[in-house]
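User: Here's a structure from my thesis project, written as structure tokens. My advisor, Dr. K., wants to see whether a designed sequence matches the one we expressed. Can you design one independently, without my sequence as a hint?
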């Protein structure tokens, strides 16, 4: 029973305390005046009566009513019902004040009527019950009595109200009907009467229709957001202009959260004065009047629900976890069916007539039913995860969150995690956990309807009917007596409501009278007998256990029975000591243990082998068991949701091995490195579940003692506890205390047990090493910071624990201390929760340090012994073979090679996994080498090698690796190399971590030496120690020939600092002059007085320099210039003046341009002085020089850097631009023009042409003059230009015939005609932009003499002068940064560091994103354009960036495409030496070869060039003398630093170091090759690996490759690898390895006959070696035969040349040229010789010499996308004699029915596995094919009708196929037998 109202008060406006118009309320009267003992009077009620502030109004407001909720200090809620009405005030002084105030407020004097104002007055009821309607009626009645002046005294009404007592809950029981009736019906004595509907079960919230209202106001999705936000503890703020609606909304939100109770701040109506409460850090649900909306704007983390506007605003920083799918979707569906039933049938043609939603009251209950149903689904089975720790005196219950989430397989679900961690759920557990209590609707639902809910899930209609049933129950609960809903309550009459002016103020009541009423009632209550409401307690049902209800889509991992079988078998083998069997199964077991079922199976199996808590194993068994345990634990999360760690915990203390002298090592010392052991929650859950089982045992024993005979079925702990709770009141005092003590001591003994267990798992075997401490949360924050779990769980744990426990231990580094602290913290927590007495707790605290100490002592002994154990047999470390001169810097360290993202070696693509492998890593002066054997026993005898040159290392990062085979998380390194290799290694535990650190330091020292001389190419052959401690002082001693005559020592020091200290960037102009002067002081100054152009070379040079100069002349470039006829250096050095170009020595001292060669080709007419001036306009002084001349058109190719940005834009500006200062810029720009003019006039076409030409495009007639055979595919140059220059900003131009491209210029410059002119093209004339005479357009459509390919960005703002003969083509070049980033992405695509299933990370997607192909396309495209221009007779100057990256690529590609000479060995070498080395591509800088260039990063410009050459090679396989392997070889060695060729940045630096010319003098030492070219030459003499057998060049053919992305292929250099021997580019190693292999193979093998077949693994074997192409094979065979016969073996080249020449002569002799193999040598093929005809990769499958090319086929075929399938490969080669024929000859074949026998020429082909027949031997057309695959048998036959005469019987044989039988007849029986045997052998081989 409870009071309906605790307090009644009248609150009025306080006239005395007005502060600047802010009024205050004060309590005028309050009854009772003394506080009740059970509910004290809440403070601050007056604030809540007028939440927006107390104010006076000029007009009377209508009376209002709302209920506010106050929460007291005991978190009890008090409901304050406020009824407010307005009374007039007649205070004259107030009137004045009020008038002025009202005036301010209203801005209108007329409103203030008769200076009367109205003040609010509130009647307030404070109650702990929430009956809104009843309160409204009662307060309304009091007001009515006052207003209408009824006869009843107010005191009586109030007295009755305060003494009214009603039952709290309970439906009507039959016996109590009448008394209940009288209690429920109340009257206040004013002729009124109302019935209070008390709910049947007060545990269920009463919601009226508030929930339905809430959904109507906000909508389904919004309310669900609020619901989830409230459950996951976010802050929620409601806004509305109605107070009652705020209260209702809050009440509705709380109602749908049932069975969870909201336990944070809850203020449905917050007064304006308390708004600062909103910035509290804790979660809340608060309502505020919309009046204060603006003040809620700056709340950043509050979710605001606007009830009036129907919106919910979620701030950006707040993330609400929503319900897990599919529950969310289903809930939304059912809600919409309840709220909007018309939605479903909205589209029906004949909708049912009535589908109104239910009445609000009912709808409200239906919605609540949906949420009840939802909670039943979320929490189903929760009772199975409750741990009952104590039963008496009070049940103590804990919830095992991890197990619950694990069984529901919702560990990943954010929402549920947060809910279970929240306060509301903690309350739920403590309230609903006890097993013996009254149950309600939810208990019933979650226990007994699980099955039904599961079946309903998918069918919304069924859910709806279930929800309606629930709604009915809920409605009944709120409205138990529908019959007696008779209310009789007076309302004030209309007249009094309209309010006459003369209304009397509310009178003060007589407190004595009211107090009398209250006292009277109280005394009556004392005498009355107590009303005992029997509370029905019972056992709470638990529902079906969770195991059965695992989600249908739950992760019952794909653990087939087979996998579990494997695990069981392996364990059986281990215990039966069948170690070999176990070893074979091990990898499979470790893979299987990824699945949950297998892990559980493992724990169960191991359990069976434990006897009396102990299982002693031998070393190997122990090792395997530990391995499996580690693998099992490794995938457990730290909360151990599947209980695997829990199941293993007893086992790790059971399995052990004897170590002699009474010392035993247990498994726990080997499985400590897992997160789960350092997780407090895990230990608590374990502890509680153990305590529960012990307490259960305690009571079970007691019971079984009493009733042994009755058959006991398994009783759960909760049922047992419930039974005990029921009996508790019946027990005597002694019994009770005895039970309490027993329970308490059980808990205490468990705590001791756990202190031991924890010390086992937390103390590392070697307690001197803080291994565990460092990697887990035990130590405090500092010690954790350097470990791999830095900021993860461990870090945060360490902090929180330390702050909680308040330990501030100075020496946290001590292992023992930290373990003791961890255990203490644990013990404190669990003992406090489970009610252990203080004495016991103190005892524990004294025990723990002793336990730990004892344990440390035993561990020390174990540790000592374990060191003596013979180590497990690890594979022997294999030594790598080293190059001559290569030395080990660090000897092998045992490591594991971990698989990376490449799948070939891991066995995922078939075949056994070669990785992970165990071996050692070696660091030499040249390479990093891993050599070892695969872990998988099936391939254990293979050797795996991965290596790369140390100079190619691009990235090194530390990783931590967990090996499946090992227990520890190891430190590892991931090393990435730009030779497309990745070493992912984990150091073995035997490698000390400081050793790993030394390894890293050495590696860095070798990778970035102080100076180029520290690189391997220079230090090779010196002592290895020197490498590591390379002092800078003796840098040059080892170099024999420094060209001392060229560089004086003083200069050397300048230059040296210049090279090593900073990156090479030539000095700016300001410094340049001073630098120049320093150089000039040297004796080598350039004599300016003499006019240098008139001097010969010899006279300008001192005698000391002549020798060097002659070296320069010998340098390759000059030979090339002479070949091209660009200038000669005869002995007398007299030049014939009519040669257009000369070789200038102006740069012989490298004073004009540091990065150019000493000799340069310039126009004849330009003197050297001009050159010295011109060079300043160009970046890095790289002025234009000629590098190639087209022998046919005499057009020249020039290269230079881009112009200086500020220097000389005047060059493109009109010549008469005003110069502000001295016109130096002008003069230079004139000289520049002169220079360009000189080049143009050198061209024969210029001198022939008449008059001046401008240019804006090519005429189509001009196009037709190009070589007619190329017409088929030559693109229009205009189109080419368009492709090259086209970017987004281009002006749209029109194209008439012949593709004018003047209109497609970038909008930055004017073109020769404006685009709009282009549109008017027709035949009209257009004025010239420069105001010259306008001529008809077609006259001007001629080409320019010189095209300047410039950078778009550079050329902005330049103006084209149409009087000049050159034209600038602006293109966009890829800048170096782009290349660098693109290359990084390319490496990651080709060699990913870890495998991924993300479709966005697939190889092709990554390749595309790297944009590498796009960059190749751009370079090739520009090159092809330049080739076209040169070929049509225009000269081209490539003037891009600094002239040493893109320019070099383009210039060299152009020469390669235009001049066949460069496609030979000598030519290509010359090209690279000339364009890349002499012209100063910065190899050292771009390759980041030294410490100085380390920051610039690796930019593979040269690799890009090689890739372009590879693309061209693929398209023109017959044009190149060198093979693809040659390109890969260069790509590898240009970064390997094995040779000096690609080391420095320019010739100047090479001379300065004395590297340039020493190569000639040092031929004597054959041991070490310093130049890659010499090495290639030497190797080429020995083996044809660099030679392209298909080389048969056209004369002077210009190649024009397709450049589109679709035509480009990924270079296999990027993706191939040979694990058997490492990269194949160091040939000495190959030879040595083969020798070793032969030696081992020669040992006699008694294993019986061996198959001739061998498996070739694409990623393991070297394909070119395992499956050589036919020519190589034949040459090899030839050599070995010669060796056998003792002949001196001929060089392969000679053999090849001989064959070629004989083939040529044969071809000529034949009358009708048959397309035999000679085709490949001869060159009578048309231009269509692209790769589509011939598909022979160097390591391709088929043979290459004896397949003839079918010319017609290739002429018509289109480019083949990708590699063709084998059949198409074959079909491209017509069969002739030279085919692979195993056996051939004439056979008679019987035709089909009624056809005669005919002789046919039969060919048995093993390769294609078929039998073909032809009309005659010469015939090319195959008449038919019998596939041998279809042949079933071959057997002797009998002569049939019409067979050939006089042939013996045995010559017949039949061939039976699946389709028919063929009858054959040979010439004689011998022949027939041969045929049968051959066919048979083919069949058996297959």
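Assistant: Designed independently from the structure alone:
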């Amino acid at each position: 029973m409870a009071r309906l109202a605790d307090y009644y008060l009248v609150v009025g406006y306080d006239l005395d305390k007005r502060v600047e118009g802010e009024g205050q309320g004060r309590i005028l009267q309050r009854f009772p005046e003394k506080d009740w003992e059970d509910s004290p009077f809440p403070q601050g009620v007056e604030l809540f009566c007028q939440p927006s502030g107390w104010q006076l109004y000029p007009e009377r407001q209508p009376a209002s009513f709302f209920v506010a909720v106050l929460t007291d200090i005991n978190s009890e809620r008090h409901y304050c019902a406020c009824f407010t009405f307005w009374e007039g005030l007649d205070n004259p002084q107030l009137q004045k004040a009020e008038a002025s105030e009202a005036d301010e407020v209203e801005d209108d004097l007329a409103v203030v009527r008769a200076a009367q104002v109205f003040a609010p007055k509130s009647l307030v009821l404070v109650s702990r019950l929430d009956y809104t309607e009843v309160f409204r009626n009662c307060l309304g009645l009091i007001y009515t009595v006052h207003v209408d002046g009824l006869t009843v005294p107010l005191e009586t009404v109030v007295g009755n109200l305060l003494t009214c007592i009603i039952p709290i809950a309970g439906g009507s029981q039959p016996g109590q009907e009448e008394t209940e009736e009288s209690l429920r019906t109340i009257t206040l004595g004013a002729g009124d009467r109302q019935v209070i509907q008390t709910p049947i079960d007060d545990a269920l919230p009463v919601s009226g229709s508030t929930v339905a209202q809430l959904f109507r106001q906000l909508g389904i999705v919004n309310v669900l957001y609020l619901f989830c936000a409230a459950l996951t503890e976010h802050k929620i703020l409601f806004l509305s202009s109605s107070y009652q609606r705020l209260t209702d909304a809050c009440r509705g939100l709380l109602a749908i959260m049932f069975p969870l109770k909201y336990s944070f701040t809850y203020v449905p109506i917050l007064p304006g004065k308390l708004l600062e409460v909103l910035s509290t850090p804790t979660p809340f649900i608060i309502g505020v009047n919309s009046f204060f909306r603006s003040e809620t704007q700056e709340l950043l983390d509050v979710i605001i629900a606007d009830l009036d506007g129907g919106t919910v605003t979620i701030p950006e920083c707040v993330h609400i976890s929503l319900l897990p799918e599919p529950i969310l979707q289903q809930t939304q569906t059912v809600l919409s069916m309840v709220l909007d039933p018309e939605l479903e049938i909205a589209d029906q043609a004949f909708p049912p007539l009535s589908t109104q939603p239910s009445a609000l009251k009912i709808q409200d209950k239906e919605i609540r039913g949906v949420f009840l149903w939802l909670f039943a689904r979320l929490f189903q089975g929760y009772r199975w995860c409750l741990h009952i720790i104590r039963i008496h005196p009070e049940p103590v219950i804990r919830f095992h969150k991890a197990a619950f989430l694990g069984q529901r397989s919702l560990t990943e679900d954010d929402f549920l995690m947060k809910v279970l961690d929240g306060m509301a759920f903690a309350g739920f557990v403590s309230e609903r956990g006890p097993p013996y209590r009254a149950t309600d609707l939810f208990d019933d639902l979650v226990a007994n309807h699980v099955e039904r809910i599961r079946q309903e899930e998918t069918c919304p209609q069924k859910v709806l009917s279930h929800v309606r049933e629930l709604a009915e129950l809920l409605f009944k609960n709120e409205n138990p007596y529908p019959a007696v809903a008779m209310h009789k309550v007076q309302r004030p009459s209309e007249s009094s409501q309209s309010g006459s002016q003369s209304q009397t103020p509310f009178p003060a009541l007589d407190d004595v009278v009211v107090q009398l009423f209250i006292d009277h009632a109280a005394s009556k209550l004392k005498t009355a007998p107590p009303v005992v409401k029997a509370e029905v307690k019972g056992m709470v049902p638990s529902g079906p256990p969770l195991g059965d209800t695992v989600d249908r889509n739950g992760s019952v991992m794909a653990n087939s029975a087979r996998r579990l079988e494997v695990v069981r078998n392996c364990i059986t083998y281990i215990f039966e000591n069948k170690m070999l069997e176990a070893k074979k199964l091990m990898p499979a077991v470790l893979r299987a243990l990824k699945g949950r079922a297998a892990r559980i199976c493992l724990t169960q199996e191991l359990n069976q082998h434990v006897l009396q808590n102990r299982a002693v194993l031998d070393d190997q068994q122990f090792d395997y068991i530990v391995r499996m345990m580690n693998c099992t634990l490794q995938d457990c999360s730290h909360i151990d949701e599947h209980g695997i760690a829990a199941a293993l915990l007893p086992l790790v203390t059971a399995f052990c091995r004897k170590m002699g002298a009474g010392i035993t090592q247990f498994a726990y010392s080997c499985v400590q490195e897992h997160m789960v052991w350092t997780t407090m929650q895990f230990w608590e859950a374990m502890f509680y579940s153990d305590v529960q089982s012990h307490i259960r045992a305690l009571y079970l024993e007691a019971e079984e003692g009493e009733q042994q005979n009755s058959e006991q079925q398994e009783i759960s702990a909760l049922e047992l506890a419930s039974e005990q709770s029921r009996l508790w009141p019946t027990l005597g005092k002694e019994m009770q205390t005895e039970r309490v003590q027993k329970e308490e001591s059980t808990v205490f003994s468990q705590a001791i047990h756990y202190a031991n267990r924890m010390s086992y798992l937390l103390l590392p075997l070697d307690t001197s090493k803080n291994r565990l401490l460092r990697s887990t949360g035990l130590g405090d924050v500092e010690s954790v910071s350097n470990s791999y779990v830095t900021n993860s769980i461990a870090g945060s744990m360490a902090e929180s624990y330390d702050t909680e426990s308040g330990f501030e231990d100075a020496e946290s580094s001590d292992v023992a201390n930290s373990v003791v602290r961890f255990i203490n913290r644990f013990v404190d927590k669990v003992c406090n929760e489970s009610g252990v007495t203080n004495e016991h707790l103190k005892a524990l605290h004294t025990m723990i340090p002793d336990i730990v100490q004892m344990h440390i002592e035993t561990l020390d002994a174990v540790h000592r012994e374990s060191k003596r154990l013979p180590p497990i047999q690890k594979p022997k470390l294999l030594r790598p073979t080293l190059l001559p001169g290569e030395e080990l810097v660090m000897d092998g360290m045992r490591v594991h090679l971990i698989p990376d993202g490449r799948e070939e070696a891991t066995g995922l693509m078939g075949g056994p996994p070669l990785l992970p492998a165990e071996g050692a890593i070696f660091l030499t002066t040249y390479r990093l080498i891993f050599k070892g054997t695969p872990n998988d026993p099936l391939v254990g005898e293979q050797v795996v090698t991965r290596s790369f040159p140390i100079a190619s290392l691009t990235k090194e990062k530390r990783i931590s690796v967990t090996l499946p085979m090992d227990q520890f998380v190891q430190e590892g390194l991931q090393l990435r190399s730009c030779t497309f290799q990745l070493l992912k290694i984990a150091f073995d535990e035997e490698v000390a971590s400081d050793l790993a650190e030394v390894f890293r330091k050495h590696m860095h020292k070798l990778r970035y030496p102080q100076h180029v001389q520290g690189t391997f190419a220079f230090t090779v052959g010196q002592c290895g120690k020197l490498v590591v401690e390379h002092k800078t002082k003796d840098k040059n001693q080892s170099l024999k020939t420094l060209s001392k005559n060229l560089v004086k020592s003083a200069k050397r020091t300048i230059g040296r600092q210049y090279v090593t200290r900073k990156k090479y960037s030539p000095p700016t102009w300001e410094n340049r002059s001073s630098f120049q002067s320093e150089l000039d002081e040297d004796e080598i100054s350039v004599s300016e007085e003499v006019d240098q152009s008139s001097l010969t070379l010899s006279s300008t040079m001192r005698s000391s320099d002549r020798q060097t100069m002659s070296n320069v002349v010998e340098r390759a470039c000059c030979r090339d210039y002479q070949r091209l006829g660009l200038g000669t250096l005869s002995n007398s050095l007299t030049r014939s003046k009519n040669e257009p170009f000369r070789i200038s020595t102006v740069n012989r001292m490298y004073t004009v341009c540091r990065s150019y060669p000493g000799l340069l080709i310039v126009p004849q007419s330009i003197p050297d002085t001009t050159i010295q001036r011109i060079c300043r306009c160009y970046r890095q002084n790289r002025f234009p020089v000629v590098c190639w001349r087209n022998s046919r058109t005499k057009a020249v190719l020039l290269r230079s850097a881009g112009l200086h940005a500020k220097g000389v834009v005047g060059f493109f500006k009109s010549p008469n631009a005003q110069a502000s200062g001295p016109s130096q810029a002008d003069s230079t720009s004139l000289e520049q023009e002169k220079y360009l003019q000189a080049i143009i006039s050198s061209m024969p076409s210029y001198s022939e042409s008449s008059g001046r030409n401008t240019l804006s495009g090519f005429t189509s007639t001009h196009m037709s003059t190009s070589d007619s055979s190329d017409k088929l595919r030559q693109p229009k140059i205009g189109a080419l230009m368009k492709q090259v220059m086209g970017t987004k900003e281009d002006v749209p131009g029109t194209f008439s015939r012949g593709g004018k491209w003047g209109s497609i210029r970038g909008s930055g410059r004017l073109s020769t005609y404006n685009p709009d002119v282009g549109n008017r093209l027709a035949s009209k004339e257009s004025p010239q932009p420069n105001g010259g005479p306008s001529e008809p357009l077609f006259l001007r459509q001629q080409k320019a003499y010189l095209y300047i390919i410039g950078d778009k960005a550079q050329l902005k703002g330049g103006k084209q002068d149409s009087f000049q003969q050159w034209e600038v083509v602006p293109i966009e070049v890829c800048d170096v940064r782009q290349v660098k980033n693109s290359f990084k992405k390319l490496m990651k695509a080709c060699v990913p560091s870890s495998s991924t299933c993300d479709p966005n990370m697939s190889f092709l997607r990554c390749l595309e994103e790297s944009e590498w192909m796009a960059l190749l396309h751009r370079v090739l495209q520009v090159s092809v354009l330049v080739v076209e221009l040169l070929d049509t007779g225009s000269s081209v100057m490539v003037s891009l960036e600094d002239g040493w990256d893109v320019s070099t690529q383009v210039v060299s590609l152009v020469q390669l495409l235009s001049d066949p000479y460069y496609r030979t060995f000598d030519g290509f070498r010359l090209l690279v030496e000339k364009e890349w080395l002499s012209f100063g591509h910065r190899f050292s800088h771009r390759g980041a070869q030294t410490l100085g260039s380390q920051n610039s990063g690796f930019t593979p410009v040269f690799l890009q060039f090689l890739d372009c050459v590879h693309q061209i090679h693929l398209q023109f396989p017959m044009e190149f003398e060198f093979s693809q392997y040659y390109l890969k070889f260069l790509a590898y060695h240009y970064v390997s630093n094995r040779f000096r060729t690609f080391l420095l940045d320019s010739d100047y630096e090479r001379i300065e170091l004395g590297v340039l010319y020493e190569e000639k003098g040092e031929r004597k030492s054959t041991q070490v090759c310093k130049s890659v070219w010499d090495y290639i030459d030497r190797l080429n003499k020995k083996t044809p690996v660099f030679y392209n057998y298909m080389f048969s060049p056209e004369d002077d053919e210009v190649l024009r490759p397709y450049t589109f992305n679709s035509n480009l292929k990924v270079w296999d250099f990027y993706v191939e690898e040979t694990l058997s021997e490492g990269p194949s580019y160091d040939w000495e190693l190959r030879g040595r390895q083969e020798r070793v292999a032969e030696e081992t193979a020669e040992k006699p093998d008694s294993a019986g006959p061996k198959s001739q077949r061998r498996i070739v693994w694409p990623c393991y074997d070297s394909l070119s070696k395992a499956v050589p192409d036919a020519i190589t094979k034949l040459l090899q065979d030839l050599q070995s035969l010669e060796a056998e016969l003792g002949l001196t073996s001929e060089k392969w080249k000679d053999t090849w040349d001989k064959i070629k020449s004989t083939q040529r002569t044969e071809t000529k002799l034949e009358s009708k040229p048959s397309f035999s193999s000679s085709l490949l040598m001869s060159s009578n093929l048309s231009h269509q010789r692209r790769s589509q005809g011939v598909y022979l990769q160097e390591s391709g499958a088929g043979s290459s010499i004896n397949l003839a090319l079918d010319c017609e086929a290739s002429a018509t075929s289109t480019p083949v996308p990708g590699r063709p399938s084998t059949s198409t490969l074959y079909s491209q080669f017509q069969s002739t004699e030279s085919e692979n024929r195993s056996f051939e000859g004439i056979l008679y074949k019987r035709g089909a029915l009624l056809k005669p026998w005919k002789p046919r020429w039969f060919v048995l082909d093993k390769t294609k596995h078929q039998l073909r027949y032809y009309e005659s031997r010469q015939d090319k057309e195959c008449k038919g094919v019998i596939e041998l695959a279809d042949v079933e048998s071959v057997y002797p036959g009998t002569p049939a009708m019409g067979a050939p005469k006089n042939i013996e019987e045995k010559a017949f044989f039949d061939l039976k196929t699946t389709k028919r039988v063929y009858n054959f007849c040979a010439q004689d029986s011998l022949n027939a037998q041969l045929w049968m045997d051959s066919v048979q052998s083919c069949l058996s081989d297959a």
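When you compare it with your expressed construct, this may help: The chain has a mean pLDDT of 74.
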